[in-house]
Amino acid sequence: MQLLKDKVALVTGGSRGIGKGICLKLAEHGATVVFTYVSSEEAANAVLQELKDLGVSARAVRSDATKLNEAEKLVEDILAEFGALHIVVNNAGITRDNLLMRMREEDWDAVIDTNLKSVFNITKAVQRTMLKQREGSIVNISSVVGVEGNAGQANYAASKAGIIGFSKSIAKELGSRNIRCNVVAPGFIETEMTAALDQAVVDGWKATIPLKRAGTPEDVANTVLFLASDLSTYVTGQVIPVCGGMLI
Ligand code: NDP
Asked: Relative to the CA of 32, which of 1, 166, 199, 230 has its CA 20 to 30 Å away?
């Protein structure tokens, strides 16, 4: 069953990891998919080919999520080409981990700009269109760390907790126009982001997971699909953990 036929979706940071998994899942369900990246052009082109092989229209756009003017141009271009934008998944994110004692101001700023300001940028750029359409689903990717905090990730946890407060507010602001805004909070998911961690840290995380395995991008993408589609028309302002039970 194709849940997203005739829908146009934007995914930030779709060149790899969770974002790539989300792009593929939305395309499998018939959506036109536009995704962004910032540096990995080769990886982005490979994802683009995979999407086209699924038979949908797709575009890969180099667009820095930290910049409001780039978000505005991105949305303008999508509307000019496809005439609508129904689904936005704010997924782009980075880590710059350190204990507060050693955290540099630029590590704080980079993480807040990429993970949190980016969500403001894209949502701001898309809201007028969704208001006119009287339809929209915005899905923001937070983290269990945004719910629980984590030593060594004060910048990341603050950005991900900020996404939750932002999303609940937007759900209240835009709900009367049939625009929904929800959050997915992944736990430990195997991607390049987590591949950079020490094995001891990885083992420590895995020990806290009742389902006793790391998650996959597809585990996250399945929940995004639910929130993006009409399966969740009465769900807004919610935070759904996809974490193998880590938050129990
Ligand atoms: P990856 O590092 O594998 O991928 C990050 C993606 O974001 C890439 O496509 C990257 O593009 C893009 N990106 C980074 N900076 C920007 C920017 N300024 N503008 C546009 N795109 C940008 O990360 P994951 O797939 O692991 O994570 C995806 C999201 O899920 C993030 O928000 C992360 O915080 C969150 N998350 C991840 C978890 C995990 O365990 N992996 C757990 C909880 C949350 P490029 O390739 O060009 O650099």
From this structure: 166
